[in-house]
Write a structure and sequence with these properties.
single chain; 95 residues; mainly alpha; 2 helices
Length: 95
């Protein structure tokens, strides 16, 4: 069940990444509304990728010692630094 949902999430992330790429490449006029939407889209993409990694860590962590997923053990950092998105946002109109 988890694997099926994870696969669906990854497909939706790929769809979002493609939409953001097309919008960024097709943005002939640098307007603030488009820039704001792209910024929000890239934040959503980053959040979705983070959730995907966390789910994968939990699933893989089930085999860890004592059966406790690594990210919920006390004293360990909850999240790692995320890599930058593959696509950079469109510069805002003010730049």
């Amino acid at each position: 069940m988890v694997q099926a949902r994870l696969t669906e999430l990854q497909a939706q992330i790929d769809d979002l990444r493609e939409v953001l790429r097309r919008v960024r490449n097709g943005a002939k006029h640098r307007n603030s509304d488009a820039s704001e939407c792209l910024d929000m889209g890239f934040r959503s993409l980053s959040d979705a990728e983070s959730v995907t990694r966390q789910i994968q860590d939990v699933v893989m962590g089930e085999a860890s010692p004592l059966g406790t997923p690594s990210q919920i053990r006390s004293g360990e950092p909850a999240a790692r630094k995320l890599p930058e998105p593959l696509l950079s946002p469109v510069p805002s109109h003010a730049e």
